[in-house]
């Protein structure tokens, strides 16, 4: 009996010691999101660099043997991710507001290779190597050797949680190793690099950690494209980011409609998205610098982005009667072809809203909603589908280092819908009402864009490089419109 008691006591003491050891080993104590600083040396970035004597290679070298991939990638936002003046403006503001440390966080997604080598830690382009300026370059994606998604503070992919390993030390000289989806053929790499096959290059996992952007300290998901996708019917049907963004326009439409994967030979390196404004600005810059070929590539991406937006949604108009008389109009907005919420990513910056106008037989306006104000801002009662950010003081905020939560989040889930209601009062004797609805999209609020572009670092000159002397009215894309005549009496 006594022996039993003793054993229980010893077991209890051992348990207490084990717990104490476990507590001491957990890196940061009281925070909701403890961080393993030994693993994540570039924190607030969660990128890991396995350094060897093999260096990163600039895209122009890869182009020598992979001309087609280079042509497609070169006009993409991935190639512009670091030189993007909108990014540079915001980054400049971030470093001034928070300090140098946040620079690693931003640049590890916008120019990963140059961040882990220490070349870049803040805004500005002066004196940087081609690898740095190439942003999300060939050698970023094709040097990813593994993923740290389950070891992040949020236990989800976030803030660049991938491992970069461009090669091995080698016996005599460094050996470059490039990773991709295929089983390497014998001649793979043409003597320039070795090849290794991975299972994640054809999956959303590769894109996940950069397309899940968390607040640098509080780990709030500011951009949640990956998780939106992961919980969608597309993920359940094995349709990944690549199947819509690494193909041409018609193939993307086919993927989304049929929920089937493209054929192997249909994959392209366009990474085309929705940011038509940046393609357009950059095409102007390329024209100014005399690079006609690059401006053609960028204008092609511009057109693809506008067309993609115009395929993303569908509208439905339904009259609602009360006591036999038209009382309200319901507008349903359906996300039919985006594999994540619509809009996604920077949902507290991008704007998507309804413009609704209804008239009676005499042309008298009976509903008017969502027309832009004279200064380019949205009217306060507009039905919009983005998010509003708030800081830790719960006040409205927009900058990503201030926003720690959303006060509203109205984006539309994949294959899902949201409804908007508009009250109508028509003069007696009116028989029918004509309703016109437009779903509109732009990159940002006019004032926000103006502030950002004014904050670009000194070595970017908007007028010299981009031909922008005065910030123009931001272009709006009409994603879809619909007109319907409804009877006033049921
Ligand atoms: C954002 C990540 C990313 C970037 C940047 C990128 N690739 Fe790829 N690459 C991929 C993925 C994903 C695949 C697999 C696509 C598929 O399913 O076939 C791929 C496939 C390839 C292949 C195999 C053949 C093929 O086209 O399927 C080659 C070669 C290649 N990439 C070269 C390049 C070169 C050269 C660049 C730069 C000019 C580049 N990649 C930039 C992600 C990237
Ligand atoms: C985890 C990766 C990641 C981190 C960290 C990150 N970004 Fe980004 N950023 C992205 C992605 C992905 C997009 C593209 C979203 C889109 O186009 O909808 C983006 C887009 C942007 C844009 C919009 C560019 C345009 O032309 O409209 C700005 C500005 C920006 N980021 C600034 C920053 C700043 C400043 C920081 C640091 C405080 C930062 N980002 C940190 C991934 C990241
Ligand atoms: C000297 C020529 C040469 C250069 C330079 C070169 N490659 Fe390759 N690479 C090849 C050959 C040959 C193959 C075999 C398959 C093919 O033809 O696409 C290949 C295959 C690949 C693959 C496909 C692996 C797979 O899954 O099938 C990737 C990814 C790749 N290269 C990336 C790169 C990147 C990134 C660079 C620049 C850092 C680069 N290559 C530079 C010749 C080259
Ligand atoms: C190393 C980080 C990183 C990885 C990996 C990455 N991206 Fe991106 N991606 C970015 C950044 C940063 C931007 C935004 C650049 C900007 O706007 O300045 C971007 C932009 C984009 C855009 C354009 C968005 C728009 O508004 O038009 C698309 C589409 C995209 N990425 C798709 C993908 C896909 C698909 C993959 C995986 C195959 C992928 N990305 C992997 C960092 C990354
Ligand atoms: C079924 C097709 C489909 C799939 C799958 C898909 N997308 Fe998209 N994506 C779209 C469409 C359509 C748009 C344009 C509408 C919009 O902005 O949401 C878009 C837009 C984007 C944008 C630009 C958002 C903006 O407003 O600036 C980014 C970034 C992006 N996708 C990344 C991804 C990533 C990362 C994945 C995988 C996790 C993915 N997409 C999966 C169809 C798809």
UniProtKB/TrEMBL annotation:
Q: What is this protein called?
A: Cytochrome c family protein
Q: Return the InterPro entries for the record.
A: Cyt_c-552/4 (IPR023155), Multihaem_cyt_sf (IPR036280)
Pfam annotation, one family: Cytochrome_C554
Species this protein is from: Trichlorobacter lovleyi (strain ATCC BAA-1151 / DSM 17278 / SZ)
Q: Decide whether keyword Protease is in the record.
A: no
Could you tell me which residues belong to the region Disordered?
152-175
Give the Gene3D superfamilies listed for this entry: Flavocytochrome C3, Chain A (1.10.1130.10)
Q: Give the signal peptide as a residue range, or say none if absent.
A: 1-24
Please report the stretch or stretches of sequence annotated as the Cytochrome c-552/4 domain: 61-143
Reply yes or no: does the keyword DNA repair apply: no
Domain of life of the source: Bacteria
The UniProt keywords, alphabetically, are: Signal
């Amino acid at each position: 009996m006594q022996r039993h008691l003793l054993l229980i006591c010893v077991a209890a003491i051992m348990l207490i010691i084990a717990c104490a050891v476990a507590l001491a080993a957990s890196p940061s104590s009281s925070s909701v999101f403890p961080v393993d600083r030994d693993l994540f040396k570039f924190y607030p970035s969660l990128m890991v660099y396995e350094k060897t004597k093999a260096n990163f290679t600039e895209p122009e070298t890869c182009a020598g043997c992979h001309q087609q991939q280079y042509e497609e990638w070169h006009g993409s936002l991935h190639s512009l991710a670091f030189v993007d003046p909108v990014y540079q403006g915001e980054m400049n503001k971030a470093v001034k507001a928070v300090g140098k440390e946040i620079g690693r966080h931003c640049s590890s997604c916008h120019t990963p290779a140059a961040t882990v080598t220490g070349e870049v830690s803040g805004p500005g382009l002066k004196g940087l190597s081609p690898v740095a300026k190439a942003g999300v370059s060939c050698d970023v994606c094709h040097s990813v050797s593994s993923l740290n998604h389950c070891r992040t503070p949020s236990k989800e992919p976030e803030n660049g949680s991938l491992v970069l390993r461009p090669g091995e030390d080698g016996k005599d000289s460094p050996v470059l190793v490039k990773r991709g989806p295929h089983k390497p053929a014998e001649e793979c790499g043409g003597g320039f690099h070795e090849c290794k096959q991975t299972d994640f290059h054809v999956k959303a996992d590769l894109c996940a950690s950069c397309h899940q952007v968390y607040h640098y300290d509080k780990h709030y998901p500011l951009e949640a494209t990956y998780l939106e996708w992961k919980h969608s019917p597309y993920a359940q049907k094995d349709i990944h980011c690549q199947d819509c963004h690494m193909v041409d326009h018609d193939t993307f439409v086919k993927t989304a409609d049929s929920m089937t994967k493209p054929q192997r030979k249909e994959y392209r390196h366009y990474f085309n998205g929705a940011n038509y404004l940046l393609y357009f600005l950059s095409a102007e810059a390329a024209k100014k610098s005399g690079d006609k070929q690059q401006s053609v590539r960028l204008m092609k991406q511009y057109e693809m982005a506008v067309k993609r937006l115009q395929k993303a949604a569908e509208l439905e108009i339904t009259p609602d009667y009360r006591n036999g008389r038209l009382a309200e109009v319901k507008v349903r907005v359906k996300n039919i072809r985006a594999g994540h919420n619509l809009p996604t990513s920077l949902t507290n910056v991008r704007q998507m809203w309804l413009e609704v106008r209804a008239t009676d037989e005499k042309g008298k306006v009976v509903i008017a909603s969502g027309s832009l104000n004279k200064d380019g801002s949205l009217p306060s009662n507009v039905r919009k589908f983005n998010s509003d950010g708030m800081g830790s003081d719960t006040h409205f905020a927009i900058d990503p280092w201030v926003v720690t939560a959303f006060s509203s989040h109205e984006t539309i889930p994949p294959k899902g819908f949201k409804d908007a209601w508009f009250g109508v009062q028509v003069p007696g004797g009116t028989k029918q009402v004509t309703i016109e609805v437009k779903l509109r999209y732009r990159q940002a609020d006019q004032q926000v864009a103006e502030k950002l572009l004014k904050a670009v670092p000194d070595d970017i000159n908007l007028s010299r490089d981009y031909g922008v002397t005065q910030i123009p009215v931001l272009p709006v894309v009409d994603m879809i419109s619909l007109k319907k005549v409804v009877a006033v009496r049921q």
